Amino acid sequence: MGVTLSRAVQWSSEEAKIKNTPLNNDILKEILLFIEGFSDRYPIEARHTFTEPLQWKTSLQPADFTSDVTLYDISEEFVTSNMCNDEGIPLLHLTPPDIKVNTFDQLCNLVQLNKDKKMLEAQSCLEANRDLMKKIFGPGSIASRENKLYNILQELDEKLLNIAVRPLNRASIEAVNTEVNLLKGLCGTGETPVLKSVCYTSDYVFSNGCRSPPWRHVDGDLCSLIIETCDTEPTLFITCNTKGVFLNEETSKGGEMSNMRDIDFYKDIVSLLKNKSLHFAEATDAQGIGSDGVSSTDEIPRVELANGEKTVKSPKYLKRENKKAFEKARQPSAHKPSSRKKTFEPSLKWKNLGLMCYYNEGKEKARKNRESMKILEHGTKSQGLETKKKPNVSGSSLQGLQSSQKIKTPGGLEDFSESSSDSEEDEEQPERRAETATDLPSEYWQIQKLVKYLKAANQTATVILLCALQDFNLVQETCQLAIRDVGGLEVLLNLLDTQEIRCQIGSLKILKVISCNSQIRRTIANLGGLQTMVSILDSPDKELKCLAAETIANVARFRRARRMVRQHGGIKRLVELLDCVPAGESLSKEQEEDLEVARCGALALWSCSKSSRNKDAIRRAGGIPMLARLLKSPHKNMLIPVVGTLQECASEVFLKSYRIAIQAEGMIEDLVKNLSCDNQELQMHCASAIFKCAEDKQTRDLVRQYSGLKPLVTLLNEAENKQLLAATTGAIWKCSFSMENVAKFQEFKAVELLVRLLSDQPEEVLVNVVGALGECGQISENLVTIRKSGGIQPLVNLLTGTNQALLVNVTRAVGACAADPDNMVRSNGPWDVQPVQAPHTQPFALITGPRDLCLPYLLIIDRLDGVRLLWSLLKNPNPEVQASAAWAICPCIENAKDAGEMVRSFVGGLELIVNLLKSQNKDVLASVCAAISKIAKDVENLAVITDHGVEDEKLRRYLAEAIARCCTWGSNCASFGEAGAVAPLVRYLHSKDPSVHQATAQALFELSKHPNNCITMHENGVVKIIQEA
């Protein structure tokens, strides 16, 4: 915003204060609008910490921050934000009247807190922080141009500059163009031409009518001319400005103009040419062209400019202009300029300013109309091209209808240019219809006839026709498309703009039903219907608000519609609908109406909450306390959308504040209570909310304290309802992260129920079931239960899948099972389990030979090919799968009685695991090092490594490099010392390979950062070895 503050904003003479002018007010309003929606549009960039905080004098007091105590630490003398930067400094600090702000997120909060005086607050901030870009990005802001935030602010700067050039008066532009056309008519090749040539320096016309470059518009430049007269040298370079016309100086042969302007301004081009060219003055006086003199202003009409100055037009000049235009119109086309004249295209920077086309208002309007009609067609017949008639509803109360019968523009360009981080479904696919006219039922034509009558009906007839339309089965797709194809959606949406409640209610009742159709939803959004429905939410009529909210809930099922609701203030209005105190079972009529309004508001918020930015907007609008209050309602139809909204909001990873707020508002107890209700849909949403909130340990503890674990285990018996089963198993998985909960699950026999769900279930259920078994496997008694319940074989079977999340969990579960020695023991006995055949190409050969049979009734992992399948997963491209598989291999090797033979049976297996030491992923390196440490316990494995072409020195090198990399993360340095890795690593220094020396020295350097490791190194003589090296 640096260019705007220095060039566009109008400062006082001392340049310390911003003037109170219309232009400055427009710029401040645009900046405020940008700041208010910044956190919703760019949540990641909003948390960017400024290099230097913005400081200014504010009118805010600590009492103003009490509306959101979860974000600020408030005292009587100061306010600080709970969030801090990397150095522990609060992102906002207020000591009235001084305030410091470090992020755009905090700026957005300030604007919302100080709504009454936000213009003065923004003005004070800009006056005190003239060099914004330097404070945000630091002195080296030029190096930040690849930063997305930098580009966003540059776009704002260009938008503000575009606002600054709006005051250019079109009258002055047209006057210049007319005068230039007149002078071009005076050019000729005869013996005594008035002028030799007149031409613009640029043929490109911007959208505001100017021909000068955009950065000159701020100074009022309209265009530049090159004029050759008959008696002056050199050629004249002239600039037309809103203040007048002045002469430039040519500085180069290329025709570039100097920025040094003459101080002499002329009222028009003719006056300047008369002053510079005697021949032109004599010729024009002879023909009666030009003004009578600068002093004779009484005869000259003046045109008021936007900057308060005046320019002039001569009566004779205007008369001559009209005459010349008439004569040019009568000239034959042969005298017109060639249509093959070279045209110039603007640069990308000019296009970004929005100055993208030749200014022609009529053509532009026609183009927009054509685009709107194409959007409305959707492949239908020519009915979509019919001119829409206005319903002639009589009565003074419907005067607003006549002005509202226009097709609303579809959403605006801003909606589509906004970057979005929403992780929801893509835009719905366009319709493909194959029906012919003969396939359509009679209802289709009857509805179209009613809609045509509706277009020309009066007030009473409109209500009757709306009732007649509701008598049809509008749930049927044919009836829905009949309304759309004949242009009925435009009529229904335009009725929403009237002040007649009956017409609005009738229209919304129809729109609520037909908006369940995906194509209808898209068309409503394209026609701007969401903006109208959002405005209806402010209506005092409760039924009208309910219908509008329910329709919004149906329409906002795709990304662009949700974005439009947020950008037009819909989230805040919907949150306000939740302001209802839940009562008991018996309600008065008024309480029922209030409860229905809140239910519809929650329903709309549920649809909107699938957008990550809308989730944050709901929180900012104060939606969490209201949802918590409604959660105590005994009415299940209210609870379903409320809990649905909560579980959607709690799913966002970076919105941890939602989960904290859910805990703080005491909602966990209500969620647990509703797990025992008789409504499976409500149970599913409650379990899903617990699933997403149980990432936090406090939530897991609360679920256990409120006796929520047993209802979750009970819900595992509802195997037919897959959605409920997925939510329940997910909640059990996340709750089992705490060992106290695992002990409770063991008490409630949850492991046996989970094992039964390992087959014939969808993948979303299996991921959760296997994850829960992996966590429960941390207790040895549960491992015995898994084995006795027959859970090992289905777990090994799942190792052949392709779902990455499932593979991560199943490898963890198999590794936990392998920790039980009984699951790896071999002895004599019958064998009735066939090994699992992997569906993909085997990465290595399996050496077969005589082996002992396993224990009876026990599914042994090795005999089930479990270890081979785990080893094959080391080739999976997903680092999480690789790391989880390597960790699972460790207990398999450790507890197998003939581990050496088992490892050597995989031809190419050791080479595969050694190659993973080249990985850049720290988890993969740590797990592979652990696996190799188990493998290396068998002496014969070193010989096998050599047989496979992997040298002992190479293995040592990669092991040392892996240890060095892992030591830089967390407490790995101490862990390696405790695991006894330091002493063997010192012996690596005796190697003759320089690469091993280098890697070992790096690893020892990292390990030496822990004091206990230094003692071990000294005891093993590392000092002497290093000195000799």
From TrEMBL:
Disordered, as annotated region: 307-345, 377-439
SMART domains: ARM
Segments annotated as ARM repeats: 528-570, 908-950, 980-1013
Basic and acidic residues bias spans: 318-330
Taxonomy, superkingdom: Eukaryota
InterPro entries given in the database record: ARM-like (IPR011989), ARM-type_fold (IPR016024), Armadillo (IPR000225)
Biased composition (Low complexity): 394-405
Family annotation (Pfam families): Arm (PF00514)
Biased composition (Acidic residues): 415-429
Example GO biological process: animal organ development
Name of this chain's protein: Armadillo repeat-containing protein 4
